């Protein structure tokens, strides 16, 4: 009951997953926008990025996954830098 469990996520994997989701959701947003632009051009209407709920949802997913990608990538780099400095400090203490 007194055990303290600490979750240590793999920031590199989370960053990669977020990057993939960001890429494909952005691609879907662009493709849907191009398709709807062509359809509305034939009917002399105007098309925006937020015409339907799923376009808006894909845009929000794209922005959220980009922010997640950047945050996870920064945490990955910080963790990598921290391990490197800990290893250097350990070798310095061992040489003394």
Instruction: Report the portion of residues in β strands.
Output: under 5%
**Approximate shape:** rod-shaped
Q: If you average the pLDDT, what whole number results?
A: 87
Order of helices and strands: HH
Number of domains: 1
Secondary-structure-based class equals: mainly alpha
**Main pleated-sheet profile:** none
Binned, the helix content reads: over 70%
Low-confidence runs: none
Note the gap between the termini: 41 Å
Number of DSSP E strands: 0
Summarize the structure in words.
The chain is mainly alpha-helical and 96 residues long. It has one domain. It is 78% helix and 0% strand. The chain has 2 helices and no strands.
Could you outline the blueprint of secondary structure elements for this entry?
Elements: H1 11-42, H2 53-95
Defining key terms:
single chain; 96 residues; mainly alpha; 0% strand
Quickly describe the structure.
The protein has one domain (11-95). Helices cover 78% and strands 0% of the residues. It has 2 helices and no strands.
